[in-house]
Design goal:
acetylation, globular, nucleotide-binding, 29% helix, alpha/beta, 629 residues, binds 5'-O-[(S)-butoxy(hydroxy)phosphoryl]adenosine
Length: 629
């Protein structure tokens, strides 16, 4: 029997007995003793066109290279290899529309056909190996086709969350020098239409590299089409060039697979670069072991493909393991807060992977909503994006998992590409702890001098071993890669989080230590929010901080100094919030905006956000010796 003993959950013994990893601590010790041996064994479970010479080449660290000399393609392992075995006619993807009126399914065979057509089309548009393609799509099957089509021909995709504004989209298209953008006319957001295509039009006006825009018909809203540049996807599919198979090209293990922009401490988003070989081994292994993937499972990851969770555990990881993956176009509460529970029941979801912020927001609607549904198909639950507070953990455990389902809390980052700290289903779980290092990983918690802190004390989280799905660099910015991650403590990867380890070896993540704020699990840089604010004509200076929020984890509070001659009006704060939504993204909208006379700064002019934070929370302001007069 599963049992919650004080603050430790012990899954039923049968869970470990039947899992891929029956004795996790034993495998942890074995993999730590020989990480390369562990990763080589896992890589052997996938197919390669040519074998590797070396599992890990660390001769140019921190520019690590994995499976050097090998030839492969992640799409061969996501699709092609399934076509010759029992998965051929298995469902790869199940999709439901936001309003529930449409439902689509793709077997591995038919998903492969769709990917071939998309790949043929983009190839005919002149996209070749190494070219960047921006994907700006809602959660519809075409996002799978587009990502896999790029990878199949060796092009590098850059997926942008379809909630980003035209400014944010333009700067990312520009930075990546994309030749092609794949988008839709519009997307559905809680019953209304969000005009994706017009946002692309606006963005592409400033992007000279874009030659073609493919537009998927989705929301039926009116759009303007540029006769030379824009193409309806349905028209392209009807052309002879779309037909037939498209070769899955043989790539070097280290050839780039994608770039994904994420927020950092400074204004410009970081373009994280991932490659084919190591990434496929890392995402495959972590998903298989952590979520104990079995052939009969139906996996649902609620993340959007615009974030790394969508890349690793909605698209690539599940297909690598030959799973059936479910993708839902909508969100959890439209039209009613039972939407997700209804889908779990309807499709018989076995593993459900979501974010603490979603759990907290659904808790507020009460237990009656989930209790209307039979959730007994679930066998595992998962959490990602921010620490899960024990209250949310217990609700998830009791109300959704019916006290039987282990909860896999997975700590990782856009940079890591794959889980770093988590557990396997059979192990005891502590609500609020992300668990233990993944196999082959060596996690340490350091003080400012680089010494390990004693158990129970807070320090900086670092990863001591390289891992196959690690970022290779920041796209075209090797120096920033070295500076950001590898310079604070030479030779180890600095995660940017603080954490502590308890006496049982369980890790507890506390939060970011840099100027990154996690709002509803989304990663935002204070500098991005600030630069959106100062782009408003009334604002001369701005500072953004994160303050604890019951549902969102953190909420953004902003302080602005107005330009000389500008006056605070009753509508100004709302106007500025709308400005941030429009110029960055609605997810970055500050909860509160205060107009102030001046901002606390150091004598060298740096904004002291920690002082603002302490003041807002009524806490001690700490050392003020560097504060300017
Ligand atoms: C940051 C990375 C990779 C998944 C999506 C987020 C926080 C992520 C957890 C967790 C506590 C977590 C960290 C990390 N974070 N997962 N299970 N427990 N914190 O990716 O946007 O790159 O953000 O998210 O602060 O550094 P991301």
């Amino acid at each position: 029997m599963a049992e919650l003993d004080g603050d430790v959950f012990h899954p039923d013994r049968s869970v470990a007995a039947t899992a891929h990893v029956p004795d996790a601590d034993a495998l942890r010790a074995e993999a730590l003793a020989d990480p390369q041996g562990f990763w080589a064994d896992m890589a052997d479970e996938l197919e390669w066109f040519e074998p590797w010479d070396k599992v890990l080449d660390d001769s140019d660290a921190p520019f690590y290279r994995w499976f050097t000399g090998a030839r492969c393609n992640i799409v061969h392992n996501c699709l092609d290899r399934h076509l010759t075995g029992p998965n051929k006619n298995k469902l790869a993807l199940i999709w439901q529309s936001e309003d529930g009126s449409e439902h689509k399914t793709y077997s591995y065979y038919s998903l492969n056909r769709q990917v071939n057509m998309m790949a043929n089309i983009i190839k005919a548009m002149g996209i070749t190996k190494g070219d960047r393609v921006t994907i700006y799509l809602p959660r519809i099957p075409e996002v799978f086709f587009a990502m896999l089509a790029c990878a199949k021909i060796g092009a590098v995709h850059s997926v942008i969350f379809a909630g980003f504004s035209s400014d944010a989209l333009a700067s990312r298209i520009d930075d990546s020098e994309s030749k092609l953008v794949i988008t839709a006319d519009g997307s559905f957001v809680n019953g209304s239409v969000f005009p994706l295509k017009s946002i692309v039009d606006e963005a592409v006006r400033y992007s000279p590299t874009v030659e073609n825009v493919i537009v998927v018909r989705r929301a039926g809203n009116e759009v303007t089409m540029d006769a030379l540049r824009d193409h309806w996807y349905s028209d392209l599919l009807a052309l002879p060039i779309a037909k037939g198979t498209c070769e899955t090209v043989s790539l070097d293990s280290e050839d780039p697979l994608y770039i994904l922009y994420t927020s950092g401490s400074t204004g410009k988003p970081k373009a994280i670069l991932h490659t084919h070989g190591g990434y496929m081994v890392g995402t495959y292994t972590t998903l298989k072991y952590t979520f104990d993937m079995r052939p009969e499972d139906r996996w649902w990851c609620t993340a959007d493909p615009g974030w790394v969770t969508g890349h690793s555990y909605l698209v690539y990881g599940p297909l690598l393991t030959g799973a059936t993956v479910f993708m839902f176009e909508g969100g959890p509460t439209y039209p009613y807060p039972n939407r997700w529970w209804q889908l779990i029941e309807y499709y018989g979801i076995t593993q459900f992977y979501t974010a603490p912020t979603a759990i907290r927001s659904l808790m507020r609607f009460g237990e009656a909503w989930p209790n209307r549904h039979d959730l007994s198909s679930l066998r595992l639950l998962g959490s990602v994006g921010e620490p899960i507070n024990p209250e949310a953990w217990h609700w998830f455990h009791r109300v959704i998992g019916k006290e039987q389902c282990p909860i896999m809390d997975t700590w990782w980052q856009t940079e890591t590409g794959m889980f770093q700290i988590t557990q396997t289903p059979g192990e005891p779980q502590k609500p609020g702890s992300a668990g233990k290092p993944f196999f082959g990983q060596d996690v340490a918690i350091l003080d400012a001098d680089g010494n390990e802190v004693p158990d129970g004390e807070e320090g900086f989280l670092v990863l001591k071993n390289p891992w196959p799905a690690m970022l290779r660099t920041l796209y075209r910015d090797d120096q920033r890669y070295v500076d950001t991650y590898w310079s604070t403590y030479p030779g180890v990867y600095l995660a940017g989080d603080s954490a502590r380890r308890d006496a049982d070896g369980y890790l507890w993540i506390i939060g970011r230590t840099d100027d990154v704020i996690k709002v509803s699990g989304h990663r935002l840089g204070t500098a991005e929010v600030e630069s959106a604010l100062v782009s408003h004509p009334a604002v001369s200076e701005a500072a953004a901080i994160g303050l604890p929020h019951e549902v969102k984890g953190n909420a953004i509070h902003a302080y602005v100094v107005l330009r000389v001659g500008e006056k605070e009006t009753p509508t100004l704060a709302e106007e500025l919030r709308a400005h941030v939504a429009q110029h960055l993204s609605p997810i970055a909208k500050p909860d509160a905006i205060d107009v102030v006379e001046k901002l606390p700064k150091t004598r060298s002019g740096k904004i002291m956000r920690r002082v603002l934070k302490a003041r807002a929370q009524g806490l001690d302001e700490g050392d003020l010796s560097t504060l300017e007069e």
